[in-house]
Design a protein that fits this description.
alpha+beta; Beta-clip-like; four-stranded mixed sheet; 3 helices; 33% strand
């Protein structure tokens, strides 16, 4: 059996389906803490395109590289924000990986904290609807 590197997606079964905020990405099997779940992919865009874009799927990798994760084939683009995340993004050699912060159960939605800048621009004005906050409001 080949040993995977830390930043090599594990080939986990992942499902896109209805979530509390539209569509989300869900674990189709158990994912262990520390595992590399999936890579966030999409075309790299220029700085001019970044400032002109209205996409909410932009991921700044470096000051000179931004990925537009909007294409539907980018399953990682379906990962929603959570104030109490079970995953986190990690940038490694110009690529973005989503890593499990804890064991994730089959059927559980995968979510990471989008960061303060994105939260303040896109989430806070409408009110956070993540599983943690939405459930706490009930």
């Amino acid at each position: 059996m080949k040993r995977r590197g830390k930043y090599e997606p594990g080939g986990y079964v992942l499902h896109v389906r209805k979530s509390t905020v539209g569509k989300g990405l869900f674990a189709g099997e158990a994912i262990p803490e520390g595992a590399c779940i999936i890579e966030y992919v999409g075309p790299a865009i220029s700085e001019v395109e970044r400032y002109a874009s209205r996409s909410k799927y932009l991921f700044e990798v470096t000051a000179r590289k931004t990925i537009d994760g909007r294409p539907k084939w980018n399953k990682a683009g379906y990962i929603n924000h959570s104030c109490r995340a079970n995953a986190a993004s990690a940038v490694r050699r110009g690529r973005v990986f989503i890593m499990a912060l804890r064991d994730i159960r089959p059927g559980e939605e995968i979510a990471y904290d989008y960061g303060e800048e994105y939260f303040d621009s896109h989430i806070r004005p409408k009110g956070c609807r993540c599983v943690h906050c939405h459930g706490a409001a009930r």
